[in-house]
Structures
1.
Amino acid sequence: MQKTALVTGGCGGIGSSVCRQLARDGYFVYVNYFNSKQKAETLADEIHGKAVRFDVSASTQVREFFNSVDGLDLLVNNAGISHIELFDRVSDEISRKILGVNLVGTLNCSRAVIPAMIRKKSGVIINISSMWGQCGASCEVDYSASKAGVIGFTKALAKEVAPSGVRVNCIAPGFIMTDMNKNFSREDLNLILEDIPLGVFGKPQHIADTVSFLASEKAEYITGQVIAVNGGMVI
């Protein structure tokens, strides 16, 4: 029987690579989106999956989706937004949105998928955090806080559901070249590159390969871990 996976924020730079890789791995993939309908549907058609629209920060919408499917084998909590600004200038609205999507969205989707995984005594949840969740980033305080929360959540949930055969892990990407970073100038990019020991920027496929590994039987004894994929930028 074909395994099923949901990738939230599935048509973004990292999300689309994860969706394609999971399809190659044999999964039927639900591509979650909120605003990018055309991109999500095009990607879903490409990988023979299904585009599904819901706001991960809205628990009612999340529950509606999970009630419509017969459980999942894999959940990848990838949906995320960032915002660069001095902390005391960030509006309440933006702060709530960052925390709502990045952290609350991860909790919402995980809470909805867990009951079916526990009944089956199997399942994998992979949360996408950030290196800034590990060490913090100036002018991205709310984002860093949300991603640090994802790390703490991963460790706690992993302990809770391990006796039921469910694994929960976290990936902390470094500087990955996606549209999220398109506003950086060439000068800024060169400065960032100087801080990466391997001397190259990350690619979305690096994250997709890590998801593929953590979802596989090769990682059956790995849970509650934070896998840093950052070229040595944060050690």
2.
Amino acid sequence: MQTSDIESLDVVRGVEETLGLTQARGAAFVSLGNPARGRARTYRRQTGLDWLAAKGRLSVAQHTAGLRYGAIYRRVRGELALRSSLNLQPGEAGAQPVAAVLGQAEARARASQALVALRRILGQQAALVAACDLICGEEMTPREATGNEREAGRMEAVLAVALDLLCANAPGRGEV
């Protein structure tokens, strides 16, 4: 065996070990590509919603409601990315135009209002909000979010109830 073959084999073993450890913590992966064609296997991490939908544990309506909640949640979380505008100079290298910064801030404010409305639909219930935040927003699998199988099953059931509420009571279906 050549040195490059040994190194390639070590890399493959390292990837498999990392993948196994991450899966043991509850992450879900999809294998892409065809290793028979001489290519290394490629993996893509699945979001919690996608994993649950692929397992048939969510309806299409629930999956859609979860995707919407997650998009709004992540837009609001992006709030931290806004920097001070005290030194903002339009046209300066690397600086965004003032209109773009204001547009982002307005979009985040609308998303924040939409998130408050969605959480009201959930009755501000901590378990329902946490399930949506962790699985829809943070894109964790139930096992990643809870750390064990028993609690993962409970989290999955709570999420299903939350998504049913969001499906049944969602205010305007316009995208935020």
